[in-house]
Specification:
The protein has 256 residues and is of the alpha/beta class. It has a single domain, classed as Rossmann fold. It has 8 helices and 7 strands, in the order E-H-E-H-E-H-E-H-E-H-E-H-H-H-E. A 7-stranded parallel β-sheet has the order 3-2-1-4-5-6-7, sandwiched between helices. Strand 4, helix 4 and strand 5 form a beta-alpha-beta unit. Helix 3 runs parallel beside helix 4 and helix 4 runs parallel beside helix 5. Bound molecules: NADPH dihydro-nicotinamide-adenine-dinucleotide phosphate (NDP).
Amino acid sequence: MQATIFDIRDKLALVTGSSRGLGNALARGLAESGAHVVLHGRDLAGVQEEARAIAQETGARVEAVSFDVTDASATRDAIEALMAEHGVPDILVNNAGLQRRAPFNEYATDDWDALVATNLSSLFYVSRTLTPAMSERGSGKIVNIGSVQSKLARETIAPYSATKGGVVLLTQGMAADLARFNIQVNCISPGYFKTEMNTALWQDPTFNEWVEKRTPAKRWGHVDELVGTLVYLCSDASNFVSGQNIFVDGGMTSVV
Ligand code: NDP
């Protein structure tokens, strides 16, 4: 493979929440581009099995780590152990996330707390453990995963929208602090993709039809359609791009 400005070969990339879903597709995409990928989830045996499968399919080096991103000290311990073994990641993708739906009047406090911890606080815990070492080295690429709900609300998911809106402003704030260390921090905000998280939505014919009508592309996204934007944001091609949020949503957030 000839080197291009999109070259990420041998870059060490930690993708949180990559045991399945979008994170898994993103990690696979990085592995296919030659990155040295660290797969992550809470079930170590499951993550190890998936890591072996991706390594076999892509020929890339794939590691497996497991920690709960809502536990700040477990996160720090696991990432420090990872850095001791493999060095400081070049790329961090903050993807792990959670959805819980209920009408606002019935929304439980525990669910609010779990969403804020998983979708927002965890980005701080994971990133803050890595960025001092990235800063010292003088390079790093951080990509946070937002959502169309970073911009648009929808009934029954006000807390999710609040966390995903927060992800965009956290991205901008991190960019403000970290650009001087040659660390670029950006956000990818996906539209609707069929994963385990939104099984209830794509199995509901009415919702399915709504997504197809509401999206200018007239369809759900395919998970591998996120990879090109990710590779761009992880490569030298984006070295002067920071604090941005790119919607990969078939045009959904551009129209009413
Ligand atoms: P999935 O439910 O399919 O996967 C979630 C991933 O996050 C799993 O790998 C899970 O690992 C991990 N995770 C969840 N909570 C924790 C935790 N406390 N500690 C460690 N890992 C955790 O979700 P999706 O793939 O659909 O979503 C991934 C991201 O994309 C989320 O941030 C979501 O908000 C966002 N997104 C998804 C869209 C979609 O259409 N699917 C649209 C827009 C945004 P484990 O194996 O441990 O459960």
